[in-house]
Amino acid sequence: MFNKILIANRGEIACRVIKTARKMGIKTVAIYSDADKHALHVKMADEAIHIGPPPANQSYIVIDKVMAAIKESGAEAVHPGYGFLSENAKFAEALAAAGVAFIGPPQGAIESMGDKITSKKIAQDAGVSTVPGYMGLIEDAEEAVKISNDIGYPVMIKASAGGGGKGMRIAWNDDEAREGFQSSKNEAANSFGDDRIFIEKFVTQPRHIEIQVLCDTHGNGVYLHERECSIQRRNQKVVEEAPSPFLDEATRKAMGEQSLALAHAVGYASAGTVEFIVDGDKNFYFLEMNTRLQVEHPVTELITGVDLVEQMIRVAAGEKLPMKQEDLTINGWAIENRLYAEDPYRNFLPSIGRLTRYRPPMEVAAGPMLDAGTWHDDAPSGETGVRNDTGVFEGGEISMYYDPMIAKLCTWGADRAAAIEAMRVALDRFEVEGIGHNLPFVAAVMDHPKFVSGDMTTAFIAEEYPDGFDGVTLDEGELKRVAAACAAMHRVGEIRRTRVSGRMDNHERKVGADWNVALQGQSYDVVIAADADGSTVRFPDGTEHRVEGDWTPGNPLADMLVDGAPLVLKVGKISGGFNIRTRGAELKVHVRSPRQAELAKLMPEKLPPDTSKMLLCPMPGLIVKVDVEVGQEVQEGQALCTVEAMKMENILRAERKGVVSKINASAGDSFAVDDVIMEFE
Amino acid sequence: MKDILSELEDRRDGARLGGGQKRIDAQHGRGKLTARERIDLLLDEGSFEEFDMFVTHRCTDFGMEQQKPAGDGVVTGWGTINGRQVYVFSQDFTVLGGSVSATHAAKIVKIMDMAMENGAPVIGINDSGGARIQEGVDSLAGYGDVFERNIRASGVVPQISVIMGPCAGGAVYSPAMTDFIFMVKDSSYMFVTGPDVVKTVTNEQVTAEELGGASTHTKKSSVADGAFENDVEALAEVRRLVDFLPLNNREMPPVRPFFDDPARVENSLDTLVPENPNQPYDMKELILKLADEGDFYEIQEDFAKNIITGFIRLEGRTVGVVANQPMVLAGVLDIDSARKAARFVRFCDCFEIPLLTLVDVPGFLPGTSQEYGGVIKHGAKLLYAYGEATVPKVTVITRKAYGGAYVVMASKHLRADFNYAWPTAEVAVMGAKGATEIIHRGDLGDPEKIAQHTKDYEDRFANPFVAAERGFIDEVIMPHSTRKRVARAFASLRSKKQKLPWKKHDNIPL
Q: What residues does the Biotin carboxylation domain cover (chain A) (predicted)?
């Protein structure tokens, strides 16, 4: 076994690999750019080597720099993580030349699977079901249109070297095919330095289901069942689970065996993933093979108990796989939510910056990973499991240079319902402040009936949230539970206020039992009966909710039991109440005495100003340039001004035709979020 | 006998109705509560004890003898806020427009005198059309009496004004002399002369809201210390403020139970100060992470944002915080920020509220507008206020502490008790670049030499240790332990006694 390995990556995946290496007694070497000087993976590794400026193309993906770091550290093997150099055959070649083991598949497998056209041919030859499409190189847009017509619309135009949705377009007609070809080509050239494009049939009712395979260098291979990753936003996976709620045993077996056949066909050795698209009739088509560890690998680990990173390292060290196909059963259900620093209310605009507060839920060990002794940290064990793979920390920075991922939160349960419920609670317990994040959005997905029933396609987000995400509305049952908890919490806070020094003896304030709770447009007059263990909150309709918990004033997280079931609230302060986030809903909750409530009704409702005729600053930044003048008529899409935020220039464009009536900004001004830059007539 | 008792109830009911249901409805229609409703929300339920409910004016001119409403347009008395005594007057706009007569003023004066004698704060709720013109000079005399009580009570008991309607003309000078003024957005305004007079005299067209609304006074003039959405919120927040304040200048600030570990470690503070010295960071994060339960009551939030002032609690005890805000103008001191902070420091010193100063200041703002505006005299106010303050003073330098501004910001030289610095602190006469350009003027043409000189200067002075070697910094502390260190510092100063030489009063550069 290796004594020391280098992790040619950053963020959560570097931390993930370090955890397993440490468990195996292997020393670890981190590499870092200037932007990651204080990053978590640097702190966790035994040593760390600086490899250049923040942009990845000047640090993490510069093969010479990584090779120099390997040499300097004396690492015997390299784990590439995902992204960066993980599927770079040249890197594998350089390692081989230097006599350093690559914790990944052989160079040949990377090469043949790295090219979408070649990989599809190999797959076809290996008897894997593939999507109808054109495999040859396409010269120009007109040829692309012709091919698209031959296949029949809709078609998918893809970059040969692509991945993660980059360089990918769907075309429903000739114009879109022409345009999609050109933009895919440009994007591919910029992102991958390889502008080859191919076209294939676009499958309807598609679900994204992938098979995890694991092979050694002795010709042994197993598949570790499937992961379903249909919940995607613009081809970027958001929610993943294992197993898939859609597959039956026969389909699973067929997909698994075809995947293994493909792996063997390319002499695969290591962990790899064969991605399929599955239509409504359970026809599955090969998409591509990822010759690396996938982002979503934890869900597979959680249902099989296999530590994939450990197996990758062992395979790279020449060991034989310890398990056989029949050992690999599906045990329970695992779900992963990817938490991103993206503001769901602003069309998922990346929200980079400082994490002023970052408190993930406590990890709980459960399921096969615990049984197999492969749980990474010494978490307490429980009925359901919580695992959080992260590369950030409170006080750390989500940098503009890399993927804005905060963490991968996974839960395990004996069945899908248990895993989903555990996820809901874990999301509620997750505290992130300082940046925008998609916690409310993924929480909304966890409660979406279609997701809950398992009835989803890759178009789920586009179809269910066509106009973007504007928050969650709680149903009345849930709302009353929140109201009951807030009333009880407010009362605790008010009682504490009466304990201030300097009171008039015998004339203290008595905190009453009657309160009014206003939230989400509803108002409830409640009566609180408190005892030593908690409070019973009675509603006007006679229903009662029992609230228990040890929340104290100022605690930003209220972990309560309402009627014996967990209710977790993220608590912020507002005048006369709380800002609450729970189950994806963000609520202003006012708790008032009956007299306050009576008089509050007399207060005028102040409508927020109509912003439909204003250009608001979408992020804090500096105005670089104003492109229009007062009185000027602007067309939809016309550039209005440029805002620089975090060294990136963002051009703000007119949403519709109009005439500029007022401009509040000039070059050099700094603006906060939602400041009015200009107004229209 | 029963009739006599019920007559009292009848008279009370009449008085409670103020200007009658129609006017009450009109008041509600303007989004405003009545004088008594406001008192209900300000004080603990059932705690209000009224004075002078049956007082009427004595004017007989212009038909005034025909209308003599009980209470004469102001409700006065005392009650409690979370069990602590306060005095209150609340002007009743439904009664003769809340106009101030001799008797109206006398009611206010009566409770102010009692407040001073009994050592309890005075909270005034202003909603008045102005002087009662029918009374002429009697009304003016009334104002004068109230002003004089405001002055006499200043520094004896906290005085809080809540402007919940019009407050115009001479009337503004009563709130102006109190410690805090709060306004209600869209339904209150304050000005010395109204829009009509402004138009006649200067031809300026301006609305009452633009001239003296909450936005104007919280952002531009700094007359008001805060503004709230409506009456209900305003009164709830005044209660919250009172929880921070001592009842009078003979008592210590209040203490209340707290649910926060005084030794709480905040590792994230170790990365608060960015590596690039020109990159801003939010000082409010530090304040919120130091404070008990993250609770901060900010004063003048919207004015001179380059300095932050407000109240927190440490171990349940009130502490006044003054902090440079690097997010705005790099946290520079200027006329506005110096005035804002100086007044806050003096309030805290009046009422024995310890002062925590968080320093990241690159100096004073240069420029003609500052010099012509008298930055020398205004900057001196803050220097003076810190120097004369005898309350416990704890200072933490997080980053820059340059030049004269370093001395101003509660430095050791102004008798601060604890002067802490983070390892990222730079206590120096100015930034390295500027210093180099002066010291090595001859090398200005040679960028390489200048870069070397700058580095030399940085190595020598861009740290807290030169100041620490001289004892100007008592201790260099880890950012993550700041709450614990500051809390312990204040704990050690609870019986601090410091006296200034006898003087009639000082002569602060006003």
A: 1-466
Per residue in B315-345, pLDDT (tens digit) is 999 999 999 999 999 999 999 999 999 999 9
Percentage of chain A beyond pLDDT 90 is 70
Residue B373 at interface with chain A, using a CB cutoff of 8 Å: no
- pLDDT at site A152: 81
What domains does chain A contain, in order, with CATH numbers? 4-103 (3.40.50.20), 133-201 (3.30.1490.20), 207-463 (3.30.470.20), 476-499+509-601 (3.30.700.30), 614-680 (2.40.50.100)
Q: What percentage of chain A exceeds 70 in pLDDT?
A: 99
For chain B, say whether A599 makes contact (Cβ under 8 Å): yes
For the segment A377-392, what is each residue's pLDDT rounded down to a tens digit? 788 999 999 999 999 9
Cis-peptide, bond into residue A105, ω within 30° of zero: no
Query: How many Å lie between the alpha carbon of B461 and the closest alpha carbon of chain A?
Result: 25
- The tens digit of pLDDT for each residue in A184-213 reads 888 877 777 778 888 888 888 899 999 999
Q: Which of B84, B268, B271 is nearest residue A502 as measured by Cβ atoms? A: B84
| CATH annotation of B2-188+222-242 | 3.90.226.10
| ipTM > 0.90 (yes/no) | yes
Q: How far apart are CA A51 and CA A304, in angstroms?
A: 37
Residue-wise burial string across B125-134, b where 16 or more C-beta atoms lie within 10 A, e elsewhere: bbbbbbbbeb
Which amino acid belongs to residue A139?
E
Record: fold of B267-425+464-492 = 2-enoyl-CoA Hydratase; Chain A, domain 1 (3.90.226)
Instruction: Let me know if the fold of B2-188+222-242 is the same as that of B267-425+464-492.
Output: yes
Instruction: Give Cβ neighbours of residue B467 (< 8 Å, ≥ 6 apart).
Output: B421, B425, B427, B473
Q: Which of A38, A593, A602 sits opposite B33 (nearest CB)?
A: A602
Q: Nearest-CA distance from B289 to chain A in Å? A: 10
A505 contact residues in B (CB cutoff 8 A): none
**Angstrom distance (rounded) from CA A498 to CA A471:** 37
Largest CA distance in chain B: 102
Window B:117-136, CB contacts with A under 8 Å: none
Any chain B CB within 8 A of the CB of A594? no
A595·B230 Cβ contact <8 A: no
Residue type, A372: A
